[in-house]
Amino acid sequence: MSWLVTGGAGYIGAHVVRALASAGLAPVVIDDLSSGHASFVPEGVPFVKGTILDRELVTQTLREHDVEGVIHVAGFKYAGVSVTRPLHTYEQNVEGTRVVLQAMADAGVDKIVFSSSAAVYGTPEVELVTEDLPKRPASPYGESKLIGEWLLRDQAVATAGTDKPLRHTSLRYFNVVGSGDREVYDTSPHNLFPLVFEALIEGRTPRINGDDYDTPDGTNVRDYVHVADIAAAHVVAAERLAAGDPLEPAYNLGSRNGLSVREIMDAMARVTGVDFTPEIAPRRAGDPDRIVATGELAARDLKWENRYSVDEMVRTGWEARRAAD
């Protein structure tokens, strides 16, 4: 038996694949390489190049590799860009999830861990986000992730009386950073860490997108969580679904202590040894002021913990990026 990782050639997915392999759960990857890299897939791991929108291909992959469950990481993950590309976002994240669920039903696969997002909350008016807060997404990306969670819920209800009832959980998180393997690093053209790294490598001054947010230093505050911790939580969720253990419909993978973009910039200069004063650019559409979650439920059920300091997050990400040169 194996576990299929959609988007397993991407930054987060490739870390999930490695964590699955380390836990003795045989991973299989499907990825269209629109943002992933074939080189991120470890040697010996079956890799199917293709889109999750291809129901026949996904169904065939599930059957041929005797897949027990799916960790669904594939998707279009850029909140700001989703404001100008809503139809593409919905195609990849909503239709993609629907097709994966249909393929699972066709192949008799009944377990799924869904990579969701803290963007489902929008801009919460609380200090710490809990799972039961109202969902008010501020971008098409956040909306698409919330709809994905609804799809899982509704399919679970629809299959409850069958011999293959869908068992699922969704993991919500925001800024994933760092690296757990020097062969894998964040190549996104939109995420903060790679943007800063590329600027420093090229001798440019990094930018802060907006310094007029309603936060102590004017820059937005987020949960910055290490990718290795995120991957580990996905694997524990898969193991618990496979064991038949009860899980909540959704978990926040939060740090409890948010970091501002300016604090991240300070750590970048400190760790890389490159002294700089960031430029201030306009806000990005769809970016809320603050999202910080507790992670208490995930700590209880998924062995969730934050094992990395901000300097370690920067160091591991920087070392992996430099190793690629």
From TrEMBL:
Pathway field? Carbohydrate metabolism; galactose metabolism
Similarity comment text for this entry: Belongs to the NAD(P)-dependent epimerase/dehydratase family.
Tell me which SUPFAM superfamilies the record gives: NAD(P)-binding Rossmann-fold domains
Q: Where is the NAD-dependent epimerase/dehydratase domain?
A: 3-254
Cofactor dependence is on: NAD(+)
Q: What is its EC number?
A: 5.1.3.2
**InterPro entries per UniProt:** Epimerase_deHydtase, NAD(P)-bd_dom_sf, UDP_G4E
Q: Which keywords fit this entry according to its UniProt record?
A: Carbohydrate metabolism, Isomerase, NAD
Which reaction does this chain catalyze?
UDP-alpha-D-glucose = UDP-alpha-D-galactose
Query: Which NCBIfam families is this protein grouped with?
Result: galE
User: Coiled-coil region(s) at which residues?
Assistant: none
One annotated GO molecular function: UDP-glucose 4-epimerase activity
Q: Does the keyword Signal apply?
A: no
Annotated gene: galE
Report the top EC class in one word. isomerase
* UniProt cross-references to Pfam families, sorted A to Z: Epimerase
Keyword Ion transport in record: no
Q: What organism does this protein naturally occur in?
A: Microbacterium pullorum
Q: What is the protein's given name?
A: UDP-glucose 4-epimerase
